[in-house]
Design goal:
This protein has 291 residues and is of the alpha/beta class. The strands form two sheets. The protein has a six-stranded mixed β-sheet, with helices on both faces. It has a three-stranded antiparallel β-sheet with strand order 2-1-4, covered by helices on one side. The protein has one domain: 3-Layer(aba) Sandwich (Rossmann fold). It has nine helices and nine strands. The chain binds adenosine-5'-triphosphate and nickel (II) ion. Adenosine-5'-triphosphate binds next to strand 2 and helix 1. GO terms for molecular function: ABC-type nickel transporter activity; ATP binding; ATP hydrolysis activity.
Length: 291
Amino acid sequence: MKLFSLRGFGVSYRDRTGMHPALQGIDLDIEAGRHLALLGESGSGKSTLAAALAGLLPANAVTAGRLSRPGFAAQPRAGRDIGMVFQDPGGSLDPLIRVGDQIAEARRACRGGSRADALALARDWLGRMALPDPHAASRKYPHQFSGGQKQRIALAAALVSEPSVLIADEPTSALDSITQHAIVELLRTLTTGSGLTLIFVTHDIALASQLADDVAVLYQGRLVEAGPAERLFRAPAHPYLRALLQTRQELKSPELGNEELGHPRSRRFAEIDPRDFSVKVPSAAQEHDHG
Ligand SMILES: Nc1ncnc2c1ncn2[C@@H]1O[C@H](COP(=O)(O)OP(=O)(O)OP(=O)(O)O)[C@@H](O)[C@H]1O
Ligand code: NI
């Protein structure tokens, strides 16, 4: 079943100087129950696409084309039907409220129920997030946790309402490499076999390959490649994805084989020079419309 269907979909941001396209001509179907990685370098439009899917585009965004949600009976609500986690682990948590109460309130706001039941569910979710002593953890405040633990708490708060989709926008990029892989592994365990659809935004191909069934690659606001991860990573058609995979090969340490744990993320995609490509890559930048 298709959850989202995009046809010729575009988003531009309006400001005093005109309209600035962030996404153009996106054709993409997102299947229920799959794990999709939205891959692309900084500024390629990943967060814009994630926000559009969640129905959370800012007021200055103007859309074009079609985005339909055939998999939802009614207009989905962000927070209830679509869970969200963002890059800043602390950003979605209130510093003044005990984490158990925050998760419980997130549940009650979306699904109702008694305070006591919600708190019990909150502790249950903290346990599933592999936080030591979930009962004690539920009584603590966000500042008493590390960045990785805060991100686990944010995940619990997003999942406690039992959304059918989880959109995670670079949920690990503020964390160290070992913690990143641990959180992605946790996400993979939580979502596998659960029926939950995961949309995982990242610029990190190693993280994408750790968890994605499908991959959609954005480059300068265009979807340049999309399909099953296994096929895309084995036989990338687009030179941009090929270049990314090559960077990944070079990052691999021979002693560790496929493991990148502890490896500095020294090379960013931005360092790949598009002029090295043999095939011309469509450039949204050249089509800025200052009308
Ligand atoms: N609220 C906004 N108002 C104006 N322009 C925006 C807004 N949000 C994003 N943009 C612009 O849209 C383009 C795409 O941004 P977006 O945040 O979607 O990219 P991204 O792939 O998520 O990048 P990053 O990896 O840095 O998060 C960029 O040029 C960005 O400056
Ligand atoms: Ni982003």
